[in-house]
Amino acid sequence: MVAAVLAGLSLLSLLTCGYLAWGSRRGGAGKAPGNPLGEEPVAGASRSQPHFIFILADDQGFRDVGYHGSEIRTPTLDKLAAEGVKLENYYVQPMCTPSRSQLITGKYQIHTGLQHSIIRPTQPNCLPLDNVTLPQKLKEVGYSTHMVGKWHLGFYRRECMPTQRGFDSFFGSLLGSGDYYTHFKCDSPGICGYDLYENDNAAWDHDNGIYSTQMYTQKVQQILASHNPRKPIFLYIAYQAVHSPLQAPGRYFEHYRSINNINRRRYAAMLACLDEAINNVTLALRKYGYYENSIIIYSSDNGGQPMAGGSNWPLRGSKGTYWEGGIRAVGFVHSPLLKNKGSVCKELVHITDWFPTLITLAEGQIDEDIQLDGYDVWETISEGRRSPRVDILHNIDPIYTKAKNGSWAAGYGIWNTAIQSAIRVNHWKLLTGNPGYSDWVPPQAFSNAGPNRWHNERISWSAGKTVWLFNITADPYERVDLSARHPEVVKQLLQRLSQFNKTAVPVRYPPKDPRSNPKLNGGVWGPWFKEDEKKKKPDKSKGANKQKKNKNKNK
């Protein structure tokens, strides 16, 4: 009865205001060295263009922050969020590459061709070169741009590298994961290589066995110490933590020995180290004169993975799924420039929104032909105004069609429900196809020594189900499917999916290239594709013909 009343109210709101806002794609409208606590900062930068510090955590679960009730202590994140604006209706993508591509382009995956899975190390694939990136736009208006951490947007050719996509400097890894100490990564048996770069070259000289979270923080401190704070800087810090493999320095386990589940214990230690690192970044911002004119944005790239220690409770699902646990993220903004400090933003915000928001704050220009999917949400965050965003296309993946019972008939002739897709419009969320692992994983699931699904909450649905509808405002935990009660809403959202799909570009997901093997590149993961190889091929064929002629003469 309660669900029916809530659904009715949500339906009314959708029909009265939601569809009026629907339209086509949008145009872009470590401790600081020698830092004694309390030291006065040097003179700050000009206030006309703020410094941007974007911190992206990897695989941090929705519950895995102190202010969401976690048993893991995150005093730095809690303090920064409490003094800033907590984003409690904030969405990202369910995996690494998609979130990073949407952050850096302001576009949905369907508009870059990266709508399927992630970019694999052996694939000749990267963020398409015809996409203008956030650092490129910021450089146009005088920003110094630096990236530290995980790239994961492709590297098969030199033009795909971070320094070719708008960053003045890059220090970090190209792949999606790797050892935190040795920086080696095996994609498959025998396909292994080194993955730590400084700009366009392997950073062998910087490999001193330092844990990556601490190493990246030291690099950030060096950048801040050497840059002039009177000139604007964009610093993108994409930490490897808390992505697997689960590794952390021993001292961070001190407070978590009572956690029996080994994966959860290691995960807690990794997050504790990350929290300390962010404190050290903040201290460096203060010491070197950036803080008063800075905007710090913190975000996870996707939901947590319970089998690797992450928790999304009370949300449903996990990383890699389109349930809320895979796409609803920890996020906040901390800045002296905020007008409503110490507040909570419950307006709809998506990771694509940072592109137009930061460019507008930087006094940059967004060309009309870029056709962004993001919105400028600064007034929403800083002043508490209504968000210009009323919908989010979570994704349409035409390759992932594992829902065997999906059909056009199940989609009312509007949509093939075998296709994995998800969309949010105002209060409503629609999923089709196979959304992925759908359990609720409560905290007690981590009470045993190993992963235990005995405590997981599961829901059974009728065989062949390929459409779900939820009122996310009333039911954020996705417990009551309303698709059978509101077929008219289902049809409207299916129609919206169909409209989005007409704007999609072809999927880029090429097969692996054997030339990517690090053994062929000095033991290092790095660019292997060369344009001039095509030019050499005709010469090879000519040489082969000459050899054949000589053989014939000898005969």
From TrEMBL:
Biased composition (Basic residues): 543-555
Keyword Transmembrane found: no
Pfam families: Sulfatase (PF00884)
InterPro entries listed in its UniProt record: Alkaline_phosphatase_core_sf, ARSB, Sulfatase_CS, Sulfatase_N
Known cofactor(s): Ca(2+)
Sulfatase N-terminal domain span: 50-362
Signal peptide extent: 1-23
PROSITE patterns: SULFATASE_1, SULFATASE_2
CDD domains: 4-S
Domain of life: Eukaryota
UniProt keywords, alphabetically: Calcium, Glycoprotein, Hydrolase, Metal-binding, Signal
Family: Belongs to the sulfatase family.
PANTHER family linked: ARYLSULFATASE, ARYLSULFATASE J
The protein's name in its UniProt record: ARSJ Arylsulfatase
UniProt source species: Dasyornis broadbenti
